[in-house]
Amino acid sequence: MEKDFLPICRDDMEKRGWSEADFVFVIGDAYVDHPSFGPAIISRLLERYGYKVCIIAQPDWKNDKSIDVFGKPRLGFLVCGGNMDSMVNHYSVSKKRRQKDAYSPGGEMGLRPDYATTVYCNLIRRTYKDVPIIIGGIEASLRRMAHYDYWSDKLKHSILVDSSADILSYGMGEHSMIEIAEALDSGINVSDITYVRGTCYRTKDISGVSEDAILLPDYDSLTRDRLEYARSFYTQYINTDPYSAKTLVEGYGNRGYVVQNPPAYPLTQMEMDDVYDLPYMNNYHPIYESKGGIPAISEIKFSLTSNRGCFGGCSFCALTFHQGRIIQTRSHESLIREAEQMTHDPDFKGYIHDVGGPTANFRHKSCAKQDRYGVCTNKQCLFPEPCRNLKVDHKDYIELLRKLEAIPGVKKVFIRSGIRFDYVMADSSDEFLKELCEKHISGQLRVAPEHVSDNVLKMMGKPKNSVYESFIARYQKVNARTGKKQFVVPYLMSSHPGSTLKEAVELAEYVRDIGYMPEQVQDFYPTPSTISTCMYYTGVDPRTMQPVYVPHNPHEKAMQKALMMYRKPENYDLVKEALIKAGRQDLIGFDKKCLIRPRKMENSSGHEHRPSKGRNQSRNCVCSNNTRKNNTNNKNYKEAPQKNKKIKDNVRSVGENKRHKRK
Hints:
The protein is of the alpha/beta class. Helix 20 runs parallel beside helix 22.
């Protein structure tokens, strides 16, 4: 049978000779049949196992009939809110509605509801009372137990409780989804499918749960005591490894319990190759062409996923909860096959945009013992310093990149996934860094130091700033040897737990010193199920239970963000206020180290004036908000408009000269 998209309407289903679907997959994104989209992987995998899967993409949640396109499925509904949590997709960190949705036709916003997974499940339940519902994807995975929800600013139930779904498949879901499908197909009632790894389920009776299960504090206890939530969260965090994790149980009073089984085992390399060799169309469905297509495809269409998982362990990242810390990789042969297919695409221009994953330069497990024992529960591989058992080797990745470059039709292979600079620094050889600088970046390398204050970096789970500075020196040295003049663009974050105005000013000074003016700054975003979000909600570091300063106030967050973009005129007032509050008035003045200049100054008589040439002005004079006046109300201005016009023109001229010199 010729490769084609899965059915999206009843006509498509009937053309295949199907009278019903085994599974109907309801998704919050537009239908994109590419392995960077979770629903594409799960639907194609089910198809490989002989199941009939139909797609309902972005149904109208206000219309019950929108869920009835294919009728009642034989085995059940699958529900995924999309490649992003629907609330992150809809709202900025300031909780303002975003204007574009990269996962919708033409970037149109508003084609999915807030809390999409829950809304879709309730929509299905209104039409089909007894059909099994299995939820998955990032939204379900990170909300599988009680969690802090930033947008409502409260602790929410497990998504299983609010959605009334039967089973939640967390993580990537290939193993668990096939096991669930086979159980349903064999006639097992969905309420009896309680044994599958990588799943959560609801129950009234926990007598059958394994004896070594951990009973977490119940939901009511968590809402009463934030410290109790911090302890509960950390118990979950250290039970994310498939080799050591215990079953977790969370109570919801008369609504029963949510039981989380240990995570599914990681895919072997052969299994991962099989997943990426499935017959994807590698594009969005043609029905979206007239609306401008799906913007999200542009970056990933000619990119290669070479790995999953991340042992970096950043506090603000949810990967530990979703993909885990054990690295899973595809073989060179599988990646080369996909790259060769790309070269036959009429839109391919010879450039592979990326070869990576969560972290590009991780191509093997962090240490040998993980095959048997999994990752350590009580320490990280790279933080605060690289573990002595860490395997540091870029040879396999270098070899892979060289093989891809040698494919006929490939002009250049870029690396755009993040690289861990601390892992690069742990490598005694410069071979990878040299290869990276010579062939795989174009003028600039993007890395993520995130901050420069060691206090904040500690909260982030990132290496000390000295490690980053050493990396920059090494990067520049390698570039000098290769004869290239290339730069580093750092990703920086404001308002992370641990960052006071003092640390925010320190970051602004760093931006000043390197001559970097970011167009955008990532303000810390408390997304579900990260250590940093737990800090934000509880005010303590769940790893130590020690208090942590948290910038909660939106105005303070705005000041911290403005400090990093202090050159923007619209940020002047926020920057000035922040510097005064931080006791750093020395940074307001005319010295080259100052962040901003005074707008107006007040003389001893209380009259305001602007600095002019030929006068000895204090280089660090700070103007007060109380001295701002409107010159048009000045009596002398009204009486001698021509004279004042000349003075005003001279001042304007001085200002223009100064601006010209700054440029």
